[in-house]
């Protein structure tokens, strides 16, 4: 089931202003017409085999609510393919840069596969550890991820990379308290967060809560330690690491590269659910710039494709209690300057906004459903079917993807 809404001229102009790339309007492409006629004529082959025709260029990937399969939704044909890769909880993380392979984890094991679910490749040797948040490098040659290992009863997390063809992981961090690697647009660096321990303090200005003297014979209580994160960079080729932030307390999260790679955006939280938005230049010695000064709860953060604003899913911004999308300017106080993004749509509890890399299409979750917005035609499409429900981010096929028929034969 899907629902489509067309906007008025004012909303259409607002969406056009936010689009990164100009596109020709209108028209039903010959390729789309051929595929649609083929689909209507042939239909689907028997249950258990793959549907025809092959997927077109515009595909949205989702996890099923029970994570037993991956769903690939062809927007042109309004058609969904189900893909099962094997045993384990399926999590789709992305597509290869050419769009021809899926990047996923089964439970916590890293795999890639063709779009039809064939040629499943496990990329790490057995016993390497678990994998979280993998992503292809821009050129498709490597995959970065958080490597999770158990050592002496302790969970350790490292930033690591592996060849897209598989092999032993190359660890790029050292403390075992690192996570959330994000590729720079040129593929040369990874931004990530690294946690350090400090003695618990009563507030931002305290080093520790006073410990009462125990009675005779009573052992001293253990010292309370907090794990708190700052923002780091690592050069992938050399492994050279650079610390970017050094907050006395609190956590940095959600590092996000600007489209040109010059800036990094992130959330800084002095305490849980007290989130502030910042940006800084992506180089050693840069001074962070604070964009918001009143606490909100940040659920997600991305860049607008043209790099002029951030788009954040926030709770509590400008007195709005529910999570909504906000367009954050790169200067001034967000509490006064931020605008509701796509306010002319009914998008309650908006989360996980994801632009396609051509800047034209935006997907997001709204009350666990998927909303798809064409920023050129100003059309909203809602995927209200049960298979589209979930609480994980949608994943776009890349703009370089020419459709499944253009992928190399297995």
Number of domains: 3
CATH class of the largest domain: Mainly Beta
Q: What is the beta-strand fraction?
A: 35-45%
The dominant shape is globular
Using the 3D structure, state the CATH architecture of the largest domain.
6 Propeller
CATH fold-level name of the largest domain:
Neuraminidase
The overall pLDDT, averaged over residues, is: 87
State the strand order across the main sheet.
Answer: 1-28-27-26-25
Question: Rg, please?
Answer: 23 Å
CATH superfamily of the largest domain: TolB, C-terminal domain
> What structural category arises from helix and sheet content?
mainly beta
Q: What level of helicity do the residues show?
A: under 10%
Count every beta strand, where a strand is a DSSP E run of 2 or more residues. 29
Q: Uncertain regions: pLDDT < 50 for 5+ in a row? A: 16-31, 38-51
Biggest sheet, in brief? 5 strands, antiparallel
Distance between the termini: 33 Å
Note the total helix count: 3
Write structural notes for this entry.
This protein has helices at 9-18, 30-42, 334-337; strands spanning 2-6, 59-63, 70-74, 79-83, 90-95, 101-106, 109-114, 121-122, 130-136, 142-151, 154-163, 170-171, 178-183, 189-199, 225-235, 241-243, 251-257, 263-271, 274-281, 289-290, 297-303, 309-315, 324-329, 339-340, 350-355, 361-366, 369-374, 379-383, 395-396. With 410 residues, the chain is mainly beta. It has three domains: 1-20 and 260-395, TolB, C-terminal domain (Neuraminidase); 58-122; 127-199 and 223-258, Neuraminidase (6 Propeller). Strand 7 and strand 8 (121-122) form a beta hairpin. The radius of gyration is 23 Å and the shape is globular.
